[in-house]
């Protein structure tokens, strides 16, 4: 972070330049180049930001964009400092009965240290934490791409590369920026932002205290042994401790709770691992004192994975049991799978720059 020693009004000008709905600029502009409230910047200011190397794009460049057959788009950015890739996914919803919109799935790290066995990103290990600016820039670029279309960016999910709670300071700062009200800027509601974690207990409590954004827990198993085998962090924060924390933060019967709403339980369906009726019964028992909704995930395969997706009949039977026990449960279809843009498939590692997209 760099201090520019400018008057307060300059901060509003910069904010409008970068985040204003009508602007969303990726570079500084001279006076006379802008329009409306953003009329560009004086040569004095441009010289100052040049000397201090303050760049609007958070030090990252969009180098590739890949669209899947279902309309999902994966964006690949490159960090100028180290050449590492950051991946972001735009997920459109454009069907009858639903409000047209785009959800942007952002990354909080390059790679991930959690090592979940069913996640391609976990194979990379942790390569870098992203700054709040790099997280926000992913959303801003998505807004640039959707500007003028009938599919505005309305929702954000922290379900890209990385464990958000392993970089919580930057994540909370990014959420604060994205939800700040300002003239000419449509801020995001905290209720439209979902942050996923494998269950880092101290950070779960801090998150619940500092923001009203939606918490999602990657549970994925119903016994200590099973969860430890596919989610290694269970060896540090056990299933029992994680569930007790959920009971504390999202007590059953108090829908507002200390955090303001329910927790979203994510459960990837793996054949022969966690997809039986016994698993469904144990899941109901685990959540009996938690205000929760369950999202069953269709597993997205990748080369070298030892797992295969659960049979769809098994998924439907699993859901049917949860619903019969008065749990709200949905099945999330795979999106972007043919371009490795689906959940659990992100990660290219370090790559030479091949081009720049405007």
Report on the structure:
The protein is an alpha/beta fold and 358 residues long. Helix 5 packs parallel to helix 7 (239-249) and helix 8 runs parallel beside helix 9. The radius of gyration is 21 Å and the shape is elongated. The chain has helices at 8-19, 43-51, 132-146, 168-178, 201-210, 224-230, 239-249, 277-286, 312-324; strands at residues 60-67, 73-79, 85-93, 101-105, 109-111, 126-129, 153-158, 193-197, 214-218, 263-269, 292-298, 328-332.
Write down the overall mean pLDDT.
Answer: 88
Order of helices and strands: HHEEEEEEHEHEHEHHEHEHE
User: Distance between the terminal alpha carbons, to the nearest Å?
Assistant: 26 Å
Strand order of the largest sheet: 1-2-3-4-7-8-9-10-11-12
How would you classify the helix and strand content by structural class? Answer: alpha/beta
Instruction: Give the helix tally.
Output: 9
Low-confidence stretches: 349-358
> Hey, roughly how much beta strand do the residues contain?
15-25%
Largest sheet: 10 strands, mixed
Global morphology: elongated
Q: How many β-strands, per DSSP? A: 12
State the helicity in percent bands: 25-40%
Radius of gyration: 21 Å
């Amino acid at each position: 972070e760099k201090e520019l020693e400018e008057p307060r009004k300059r901060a509003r000008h910069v904010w409008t330049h970068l985040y204003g709905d009508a602007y969303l600029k990726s570079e500084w502009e001279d006076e006379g180049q802008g329009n409306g409230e953003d009329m560009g910047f004086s040569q004095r200011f441009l010289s100052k930001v040049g000397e201090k190397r303050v760049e609007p794009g958070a030090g990252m460049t969009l180098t590739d964009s890949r669209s899947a057959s279902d309309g999902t788009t994966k964006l690949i950015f490159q960090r100028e400092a180290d050449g590492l890739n950051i991946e972001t996914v735009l997920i459109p919803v454009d069907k009858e009965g639903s409000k047209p919109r785009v959800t942007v799935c952002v990354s909080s790290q390059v790679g991930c240290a959690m090592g979940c066995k069913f996640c391609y990103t976990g194979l990379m290990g942790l390569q870098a934490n992203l700054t709040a600016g790099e997280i926000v820039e992913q959303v801003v670029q998505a807004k640039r791409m959707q500007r003028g279309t009938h599919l505005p960016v309305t929702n954000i999910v922290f379900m890209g590369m990385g464990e958000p709670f392993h970089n919580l300071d930057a994540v909370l700062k990014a959420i604060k920026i994205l939800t700040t009200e300002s003239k000419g800027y449509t801020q995001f509601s905290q209720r439209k932002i979902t942050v996923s974690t494998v269950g880092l207990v101290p950070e779960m409590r801090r998150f619940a205290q500092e923001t009203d954004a939606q918490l999602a827990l990657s549970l994925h198993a119903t016994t200590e042994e099973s969860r430890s085998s596919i989610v290694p962090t269970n060896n540090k924060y056990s299933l029992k401790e994680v569930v007790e924390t959920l009971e504390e933060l999202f007590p059953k019967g108090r829908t507002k709770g200390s955090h303001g709403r329910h927790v979203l339980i994510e459960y990837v369906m793996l054949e022969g691992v966690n997809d039986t009726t016994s698993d469904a019964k144990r899941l109901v028992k685990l959540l009996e004192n938690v205000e929760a909704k369950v999202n069953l995930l269709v597993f997205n395969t990748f080369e070298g994975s030892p797992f295969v997706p659960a049979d769809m009949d098994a998924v439907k039977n699993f859901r049917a049991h949860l619903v019969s026990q008065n749990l709200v449960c949905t099945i999330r279809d795979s999106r972007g799978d043919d371009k490795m843009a689906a959940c659990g498939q992100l990660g290219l590692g370090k790559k030479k720059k091949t081009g720049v997209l405007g």
